[in-house]
Amino acid sequence: MPRAKSDKDRKIFVLDTSVILYAHNSIMNFAEHDVVIPITVLEELDQFKKGNDTKNFEAREFIRLLDKLSQDQRIDQWTPLNGKTKGFFKVMMHHPENEKDAIKIFGDDKNDNKILNVAVHLMETEKARKVILVSKDINLRLKAKSLNVNAEDYETGKIKNITELENTGKYVMDDVEPEAINKLYEQGYIEAKNVLGTRKRKSNAYYILKSEKNSVLAFYNSEENVLERVDKRLAYNIKPKNAEQTFALHAIMNPAIKLVSIQGVAGTGKTLLALAGALEQRRDYKQIFLARPIVPLSNKDIGYLPGDIKSKLNPYMEPLWDNLKFIQNQYKETDKEFQKITELVNQEKLVIQPLAYIRGRSLSNIFFIVDEAQNLTPHEIKTIISRAGENTKIIFTGDVFQIDTPYLDSQSNGLSYLIDRVKDHPLYAHIKLEKGERSELANLANELL
């Protein structure tokens, strides 16, 4: 189909490989504007076709989508995207004959420079239209700007205001009547309107209620429209050390809440509380899964590490085993609780594995803890939750500001996406742990270094 070029308001977006691997359907999210895929991107995607990681899935799905959209047309010509409000797309070949040649300027025949050359070529040949390179690679965006090429991050699904997530889940009220707090202590609950009045109420929110005389921790039960008193309780001999940990353990052990996210810096007890809560409820579930994504060191695959597959994975899983050992060491070796943990591991009732090993399994009757969830993409978070079957509970823990995965940041990672999209759902609760409880020395590192 011939491409009409009279509409100068239509922008041209040039997509980098990182955008495709982040979201295979990204090509469909540029409204009425046009999209260009450099041939270098297709060549790079070809290297990602095989494998079971999310990036492999995204590469395969994008190639299928491109094939479906192009049908019997040549992909190097403008081809309509689906829908009347959509623009057009095409694949462009290498263009080293530009006035500005990124390969010569940067002195390297690498793929990033070939992608830059496509954007430069479009700027030189489509002078009436705005050309924008879209990449999740910050370095590539900087190189583009050095050539006076407009460059942007892929914004779809990105959290606009990360600071709003900081206030999700917990609220402090200082002007509560002492009688209301007394009633909460006496009967364990109080009608929400007697304390919250006309304030907006969010499902599964937690409150620190204070008066001049006393204070109490409370949970808003949206189904009953009441505030319930929250008490500190032990979970496999692990006791919460502050209000936020008390709230987190309450959410972890509340059977009505099926999805929990716990945000906090290192040492705040996220994984420890989740695992202790899981062990306390072990009789209610067929298995406990504790998993975390593998983020290769220096962006190298784990194949670079020495030893067999178990040796390669041990460094990544060791922090999870440390939490389990800490809980087990709350008891003597002769105690039945100590022996029960060993038995759960030996019988594979409690499984600690890389997330890639669990992805694809049926998640029915499972207590599933996903550690370091900030290193997952929104699509990975969605995939995990969508596999949940009957009687499954999922806990995501992590720190949205401690990103180890290339092309993710505090606004685009899966944990931030989850907190933003699912807040106020009756099946979901979120808690931010603020105080480090590992040691005073660890607190010093988090606060001052």
From TrEMBL:
User: What is the superkingdom listed in this entry's lineage?
Assistant: Bacteria
Q: Which Gene3D superfamilies match?
A: 5'-nuclease, P-loop containing nucleotide triphosphate hydrolases
Record-given protein name: PhoH family protein
Its keywords, alphabetically, are:
ATP-binding, Nucleotide-binding
* SMART domains with a match to the protein in the record: PINc
Family designation: In the N-terminal section; belongs to the PINc/VapC protein family. Belongs to the PhoH family.
Q: Where is the PIN domain?
A: 11-142
User: May I ask which residue range the UniProt record assigns to the signal sequence?
Assistant: none
What Pfam family is a match, any one? PIN_4
Classification from the root reads: Bacteria, Pseudomonadati, Bacteroidota, Cytophagia, Cytophagales
InterPro entries documented for this protein: P-loop_NTPase, PhoH, PhoH2-like, PIN-like_dom_sf, PIN_dom
